[in-house]
Amino acid sequence: MTFGDVALQPVGGDIRCEEQLARLTIPCDYVCMIDFETNLAEIIGRPSLQRPFVCDGDPSTCSVWIVGYNAATSGGDWWRFWTSDEGFDLRSWRKDYDAERAARGKGPSATRRRIDRFSAKVPDVLETNIYATPSTEMANMPVSTTDAFDLLLATFKPRVIIAHGVPAAKHLQGWTAGKLITCPHLSRAGYAIVDEIVEQLERN
């Protein structure tokens, strides 16, 4: 027996009938988010100092992604800022990120300052990297995979991806589901490049 797209098992099956009926009241988007969370936890672990992405709230509403190589700062256990029903708590994460940078005698990175400039002008931006493992330099990043990013891209559908740096652009060269914009790594790109990309998005 089916109700909508949910198959109901007879009483005595693996799932109790009342539990299945209760699932029918859960929005599909929420169920999909739970599945995403489960799959992501299998990749990055829980708790995790990896940083698969940051955004303000629900990642499925983010039409523009900024994609780099890997992060320089984790911001602490990523799961402290995530819930399947609310999404990502960007404000709390940014507070911890700034505190972590300050403890190292640093302010926001050059990349962060350019992302801040971009996000101030473009709504619904998701920030991620092809590698979720943070490191102070690309050369000292521990062995990692792109599995977290690949899951993110397979689950959510951005309209535009801005790939900054050669490795990110190379990883995404076969992506055709939206508009791909490539540019130098934001740690080295001038603010003029950021403004040019913003203008390009505003024209389209």
Essential attributes:
single chain, 204 residues, alpha/beta, 5-stranded mixed β-sheet, two-stranded antiparallel sheet, 15% strand
Structure overview:
The chain has 204 residues and is an alpha/beta fold. The chain contains seven helices and nine strands. The protein has helices spanning 17-23, 28-44, 90-103, 110-121, 147-155, 166-171, 191-203; strands at residues 2-3, 6-7, 53-54, 64-68, 82-83, 87-88, 125-129, 160-164, 179-183. The strands form three sheets. A five-stranded mixed β-sheet has the order 3-7-4-8-9. Strands 1-2 form a two-stranded antiparallel sheet. The chain is globular and about 40 Å long. The protein starts with a strand and ends with a helix.
Quick structural gist:
The protein is an alpha/beta fold and 204 residues long.
Order the strands across the largest sheet as they lie in space: 3-7-4-8-9
Based on CA inertia axes, which overall geometry fits? Answer: globular
Number of DSSP E strands = 9
Largest sheet: 5 strands, mixed
String of helices and strands: EEHHEEEEHHEHEHEH
Low-pLDDT residue spans: 1-28
Terminus-to-terminus distance:
47 Å
What would the average pLDDT be, to the nearest integer?
A: 84
**Helical content (DSSP H or I, runs of 4+):** 25-40%
Structure annotation, total helices: 7
Helix and strand arrangement:
Layout: E1 2-3, E2 6-7, H1 17-23, H2 28-44, E3 53-54, E4 64-68, E5 82-83, E6 87-88, H3 90-103, H4 110-121, E7 125-129, H5 147-155, E8 160-164, H6 166-171, E9 179-183, H7 191-203
Parallel strand pairs: 4-7, 4-8, 8-9
Antiparallel strand pairs: 1-2, 3-7, 5-6
Helix pairs in contact: 2-5, 4-7
